[in-house]
Design brief:
- This is Helix-turn-helix domain-containing protein.
- The protein is mostly helical.
- The chain has six helices and no strands.
- α1 crosses α4 and α3 crosses α4.
- The longest helix is centred in the C-terminal third of the chain and has 26 residues.
- It starts with a helix and ends in a 7-residue tail after the last helix.
């Protein structure tokens, strides 16, 4: 199950960098849950060809992350934003900031970012 999640995350980040053929096969296999046989029939190729194409595509996805490291950078950015939010809340309590202070807008934007990325399971 863990590999399935990893590939799904990698595909979300780097799928568009694959060839159209690879993108389609990874999408059909991992997102549409089609079998190798079903994909082979849809694409008029052998099951072995589907398997080899998927392996190459997945290797490319891991290679992209190894080189670009975007998933890890996103995870670190989320951790940093959580820390900033915590520090701002502590400052607000310490100095009794009113609702009008700009930090509320910052907290809102941080919460928005964190909510949008809450489902990301980083590698």
């Amino acid at each position: 199950m863990e590999k399935l999640v990893e590939v799904a995350i990698l595909f979300d980040y780097y799928g568009e960098l694959l060839s159209k053929k690879q993108f389609k096969m990874v999408d059909e296999y991992y997102n549409e849950d089609l079998s190798l046989t079903e994909i082979a029939e849809l694409n008029n190729i052998s099951k072995q060809a589907v398997s080899e194409n998927l392996k190459r595509a997945i290797n490319k996805l891991y290679s992209f992350e190894k080189k670009l490291n975007l998933i890890n950078k996103g995870y670190n950015a989320s951790k940093l934003l959580k820390k900033i939010k915590e520090d701002l809340n502590n400052l607000a309590l310490k100095y009794s900031f009113s609702e009008e202070i700009i930090y509320k807008d910052i907290i809102f934007e941080i919460d928005k970012f964190l909510d949008e990325n809450a489902g990301d399971n980083y590698l």
